[in-house]
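Practice record 12: protein with zinc ion.
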Amino acid sequence: MISWILAAALTASNPWASQAFPAPGAADAIGTYTAGCLQGAIPLPERGTGYQLLRPSHRRYYGHPVLIAYLQQLARRSHTVGLPDLLVGDLAMPRGGPFTSGHKSHQSGLDADIWFRFAPSVLSRAEREDPTPLDLVDDRRNRVNRQFSPQHLRLLQLAAEDARVERIFVNPAIKLAACQALQGKPRGWLAKLRPWFGHSAHLHVRLRCPAGNDCQPQAPVPAGDGCGEELLSWFAPPKPATGSQTVKAPAAQPAQCRALLTP
Ligand SMILES: [Zn+2]
């Protein structure tokens, strides 16, 4: 009951969650991935060649047209190489902005989650609404489990080898497994795989800020394949805390975003 009241209060205080339609005008990703909004979004259709959309009732299937085109092309490519259908999770809300629950990025229409669970057949609407995730990481060992397969590696490569992609977040254990699987082989594309907390049941793809848009690019990914020291630091024992931890206040959205909010 209390959590329901809390959720209702949060929805009421987050005007972005009640925007029913995209903001009209030319497509424009505004601000940053974690403090931004989106004009001229379009929806990803619920199904297409090589993919099925999850949780359609959440209406988090809007994106910058560049993101929608990217996802549809990735799904077609993965279908062509024989992968089962991709399951696409959250993109953005009709006008972007912060989700009321869950992750804090996905605000400017350039982020999308693709699940590691594939769909060998067409899922019913009920199954897509309440899907069971496939977790690839054994938390106790901090390594991938036996569910991690060459199909996942193929998907990650297809997703990363696209000039529109800025970076892809995956669990450190998944990046490590990819580094090990490609030892001695060309693996430059692994640079875009960025180790991050969570992300053991889905990959999170982030596109570059499209030219002429009002978005702020992120610092570029470090040079190299990222299979060295930085990755290994994720597996080192935690260092003792030094000093006091400061909690950063969330960055404010650009003023431009206010104009996109309808009362
Ligand atoms: Zn995400």
